[in-house]
Specification:
Blueprint lengths: L1 H16 L3 E6 L3 H15 L3 E6 L1 H11 L4 E5 H7 L2 E9 L2 E5 L18 E4 L5 H12 L3 H4 L3 E4 L2 H10 L4 E5 H7 L5 E4 L9 E7 L6 H9 L3 H9 L3
Parallel strand pairs: 1-2, 1-3, 6-7, 6-8
Antiparallel strand pairs: 3-10, 4-10, 5-8, 5-9
Helix pairs in contact: 2-10
């Protein structure tokens, strides 16, 4: 009986590992996803080919290539595209205000003349850029800081500017903030009542047959190991 079970599990592992995955995701989730992909590979033998970019790039790749097996992004954004049919929740994203060289005591200090440059991801292409605009408008800071704003392509690009010290503050997600915390002056989570927290999900494209590897990866996200990685990065 044990031998039969072992052979069945071995066959399943070989079947999954023979079917590689191509997963596209928003660039702001690269750090936790790379760790999860590596853990999935160790667990199943299945390699994940990873593609990261802003969500407009991810959607174009999903729509035009026909090769994307799974997508990680914000559910509301993905639903509007009409390209997906099943969603697996990963967690709620958190918007963070990060400081390059000197931490502020409060986000209201963004209006201080000493704060000259504030970066955010492109609100037309990145969910955290949209969240940053919501925050600035709902907090009524926008009129006083709009001339300080610098639009960059993605969350990781804002993080790179923070690390380099070329901006005073920047809006990124909690995931990236945790990853760069030792290289910046600090960060604070933005009050959740001042923006709509992104709902981060794994999505299955409608026009792509669901492979056994895709099913296995979705199931793996429910494991303690995957949940631990997501929690570590603020999801």
């Amino acid at each position: 009986m044990r031998l039969t079970t072992f052979i069945a599990l071995l066959f399943l592992s070989l079947s999954v590992s023979a079917d590689p995955l191509l997963i596209a995701a928003g660039a702001g989730y690269k750090k936790p996803l790379v760790e999860i992909y590596a853990a999935f590979d160790r667990s199943t033998g299945t390699k994940v080919e990873a593609a990261f970019g802003n969500m407009q790039q991810v959607m174009a790749q999903t729509r035009d290539s026909g090769r994307i097996d799974l997508v990680v992004g914000e559910r509301g954004f993905l639903e509007k595209t009409g390209l997906f049919e099943r969603y697996v929740p990963l967690g709620a994203g958190r918007l963070v205000l990060a400081y390059s060289n000197k931490a502020l005591s409060d986000y209201r200090q963004l209006t201080d003349p000493a704060v000259e440059r504030i970066a955010l991801p492109d609100p037309k292409k990145a969910v955290y850029g949209k969240a940053a605009i919501q925050f600035l408008e709902r907090s009524e800071l926008m009129p006083e800081v709009k001339d300080k704003l610098m639009i960059l392509a993605t969350v990781p690009q804002v993080s790179a500017y923070l690390i380099a010290g070329t901006i005073d503050a920047g809006f990124i997600n909690m995931t990236d903030a945790i990853g760069i915390k030792d290289r910046i002056a600090g960060f604070e989570a933005v009050p959740v009542d001042l923006y709509d927290p992104p709902r981060i999900v794994l999505a299955f494209p409608k026009d792509r047959p669901v492979s056994e590897s895709a099913k296995a990866f979705a199931a793996f996200l429910g494991s303690d190991q995957a949940k631990g990685i997501l929690t570590k990065y603020g999801l």
